[in-house]
Structure prediction request, 209 residues.
Amino acid sequence: MLTVALPKGRIAQETLEIFETIFGECFVFDDRKLILETPNFRFLLVRNQDVATYVFHQAADIGVVGLDTLEEQGLDVIRLLDLRRGVCKVAIGMRKGEKLDLSKPEIKVATKMVNITKRYFAERAVSADIIKLYGSIELAPLVGLADMIVDIVETGTTMKQNGLEVVENIMESSTYLIANKNSYIAKKDEVLNIYEKINKVIKAEQKAK
Ligand code: PRP
Prediction:
């Protein structure tokens, strides 16, 4: 039996569809239930930011989460497989027409991804004032809270509609299958078995594209 942590929303849905493709049966959570028990898998519905926590503490053996979240949280889990879903970028956005000038003193950056942002500026030996926000990041430069933002860009629509544009890409992200380090050893056959099956589905999808 493997416990699988899934992030509420589209990615959980898409992951369950992969399981349906593999096993030819329905995997659907009842109404507001957060656990789905099947003979071989127990699925948990958790917040996106909590997936790696469940896996790290072995409350789940495997999980599905964005690379951006993994990089931000830095929890020690095994990255098994890129599921080629949830493709997005972590990027620096500024008001349209403005240029990124890292030599400017007192750079103010608003973001919910504080660690990725810190790392980016530290690697360039730039001291930046990082302002932690929890959402609606695109608002910050419009009202003078920050000079720029570090945020997720998927279609680019949110930035565009708020008069911002990408001035620098920090990283590419997509959804990953992850595993707990102990589970990977103790349940190696089960983990590798599902890894191989999912990998097959992903590879077939890529081929069909
Ligand atoms: C992310 C991000 C942007 C938006 C970008 O927020 O913070 O606001 O998506 O997508 P786009 O480029 O397609 O417009 P999300 O919807 O994940 O909500 P959150 O702020 O609650 O994480």
User: Anything to note?
Assistant: The mean pLDDT is 97.
